[in-house]
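Researcher: Quick test of sequence recovery. Tokens follow.
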């Protein structure tokens, strides 16, 4: 029987390196591919690993040499700028808070990289993500990993075609176990620290990235309360996100939170404790995994950000393909631009981009 050929997306980190190791041990024909995503001379990348920085490419090459597998480097810098960096910057300028991994996964890691691998004669791609894909009755389903580093939240955008050609060999393994395996097999990245920043944003300076990348900035404007009363001046909407309390630059004598950002009026609305909770939200750009489309209301759980706990809700379909999500209990700081991801038990049903929140029904 012909061995399945798998191309592993090699980021130069521990997880993808161990993914390649496991697949080779399982008898697959394995190769590694590292993506160059952000130009080295652009002045945009952070100090840590990410975006196919030169150090990451060299680390991935060392791992592939240690595993005795081929290593390929693909330059997707233009596509990454178009599909990830530009939408990210534009969303911030509109007062939203996007998740770049949600943009990158369907278009780059499991989009362009998958198509490149298939064109080279490989059967599938694999990464070091912690999640699981199961095929049932001709449809591919996505499941959470039963570990602390479950990453299913950022994978809800994947299509059936993509899911059919993806392997996640680290499912069920804790990160400490993956690092221990890397040490046991003397992989050169065994002690490399994890990157926790957005890969193309230097020092978590979002405003600085947007200025350098787009040449644009957002002008100063007014802080207002819910009635529209001016409370002071803000330094530009791209410096704020929903739920923010610190760094407002004004002392109010009591905690005040960002509860609204309006790019059209250039106003940031502040509210007291309690006003940052919402009973419902509307989301668009919805992708369903468990089924083709939502025709009737469904009861499930939802996460409104990566670190959020699942919250019981009912999801209602809207005529334009968007959804209205009504929570059993109010949710804190529902943020436009972030993803709401729906699940039932360990299965990811799908998700979408939060368009707006609703404090009351």
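Model:
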């Amino acid at each position: 029987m012909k061995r399945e050929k798998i191309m592993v997306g090699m980021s130069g980190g521990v997880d993808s390196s161990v993914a390649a190791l496991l697949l080779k041990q399982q008898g697959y024909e394995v190769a590694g591919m590292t993506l160059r995503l952000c130009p080295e001379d652009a002045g945009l990348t952070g100090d840590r690993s990410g975006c196919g920085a030169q150090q990451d490419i060299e680390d991935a090459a060392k791992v592939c040499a240690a595993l005795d597998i081929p290593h390929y480097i693909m330059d997707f810098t233009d596509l990454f700028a178009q599909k990830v960096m530009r939408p990210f910057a534009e969303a911030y300028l509109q007062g939203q808070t996007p998740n770049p991994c949600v943009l990158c996964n369907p278009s780059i890691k499991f989009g362009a990289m998958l198509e490149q691998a298939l064109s080279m004669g490989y059967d599938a791609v694999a990464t070091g993500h912690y999640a699981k894909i199961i095929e049932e009755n001709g449809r591919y389903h996505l499941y959470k990993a039963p570990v602390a580093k479950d990453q299913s939240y950022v994978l809800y955008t994947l299509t059936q075609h993509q899911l059919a050609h993806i392997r996640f060999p680290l499912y069920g393994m804790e990160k400490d176990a993956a690092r221990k395996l890397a040490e046991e097999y003397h992989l050169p990245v065994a002690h490399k620290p994890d990157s926790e920043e957005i890969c193309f944003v230097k020092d978590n300076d979002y405003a600085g990235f947007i200025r350098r990348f787009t040449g644009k900035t957002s002008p100063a404007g007014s802080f207002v309360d819910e009635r529209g009363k001016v409370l002071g001046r803000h330094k530009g909407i791209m410096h704020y996100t929903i739920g923010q309390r610190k760094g407002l630059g004004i002392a109010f004598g009591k905690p005040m939170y960002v509860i609204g950002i309006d790019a059209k009026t250039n106003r940031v609305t502040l509210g007291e404790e309690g006003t940052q909770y919402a009973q419902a939200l509307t989301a668009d750009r919805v992708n369903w995994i468990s089924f083709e489309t939502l025709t009737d209301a469904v009861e499930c759980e939802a996460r409104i950000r990566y670190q959020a706990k699942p919250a019981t809700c009912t999801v209602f379909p809207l005529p334009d393909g968007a959804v209205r999500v009504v929570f059993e209990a109010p949710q804190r700081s529902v943020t436009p631009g972030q993803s709401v991801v729906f699940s039932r038990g360990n299965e990811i049903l799908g998700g979408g981009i939060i368009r707006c929140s609703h404090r009351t029904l």
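The longest strand covers residues 277-288.
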